[in-house]
Amino acid sequence: MVFTVFWLILLLACFVTLTSTMFLFADLLTRSPDDTPQGFRGIAHVSGILTVAMVTCFIGHTVAFFSVPFGYLPWRLRTIKGRKLSGVPVVFVHGLYHSSAAWFAFRFRIGTIGRRPTFALTYPSFFQNIDTICSRLEDTIETALKETEQKHVILVGHSLGGLVIRRYLTTSQQAHAVAGIVTLGTPHRGSILAHLATGHLGRSIAPDGALIKKLEQHPLPNIPKMCLYSCIDNMVVPGKNLIPRDSGWVIEATAPVSHTFMLIYPPVIRRVRQLLDALDPVA
Prior knowledge:
Elements: H1 2-30, H2 46-67, E1 90-93, H3 104-113, E2 118-121, H4 130-148, E3 153-158, H5 160-171, E4 178-184, H6 200-203, H7 210-216, E5 225-229, E6 249-253, H8 266-279
Parallel strand pairs: 1-2, 1-3, 3-4, 4-5, 5-6
Helix pairs in contact: 1-2, 3-8, 4-5, 5-7
C-alpha cells in the first residue's frame, strides 16, 4: 500500500511537470527578450529554461504532494510555547491544493532560526469559497495577535494564498492590523491553467474568473506590498499575469525556478526573511 501511494505520487508529479512545462514553453515562445532571464535568452537556450523548469517542478511538486497531509496535524498552527520569540508575527497562507505544511522550510528559517513567531493557515481547496477562507484567515490572525500580544501581523502568501490575502484586505474590518504583505508566485491577473483545475475555487483564478474580477474591483490599502515572482513559473501562464495591475507594489524577480520550488529554495526564503526584517526588525 505504501509503495503504491509512493509511485502514484511520483506519477502525478511527472504528469503535472510535463503538462505545465508544455504551457510554459508555449508562453516562452511569445515573450519578448526582456521577459526571459539573462543566460537563457535566444531560442538556443530554450532547452535550458525547460530543463530548469522541469527539474525544479518535479522536485517541488513531489515535496508538496508528500507534505500536504502534515498540514492537517493538530500542531500545524504554531510552535510558540516555551520559546523566546520576538517581533511582529508572520501568518503564512498556502496555495491551491496544498496545506500549511507548504511552509515548513520558511517556518524553520524564519521562526526557528530567525526567532520570529510564525503561524500558518490550512484550508481545504474544495467545497469552500474565497470569503470562507478569508474568515478562517481572520481567525488565524486573531490567534496570532492574542498569542504574541502584538498589534499587527505580516501576511505572506504563495500562489492562491496571495489572492486570499488580497481579498481579505479589501473585505475585513480587521485589515488595519496588517502591517505589510509578501506574495510569492501569485497569479495576480489569473492563470489560464486554472481552466484545467478541479473545483470551483481553482477555476475562479482563471484570467476571466470570478475571483480575479472581484479583486480588480477593489483597491488595496496603502501598506507595504511586495511581489516576488519567477520568470519561469510553470503554473501561472502567461508569465505577465504574475505582476499586479495596481500600483504601489515592490516587484522583484527571484532566481528562475518553478512555482512550487520557490517554497523550498533557500535564496527565496532568505530574501523573504530580509523583507520581513525590513518591515519589522527583530531585536
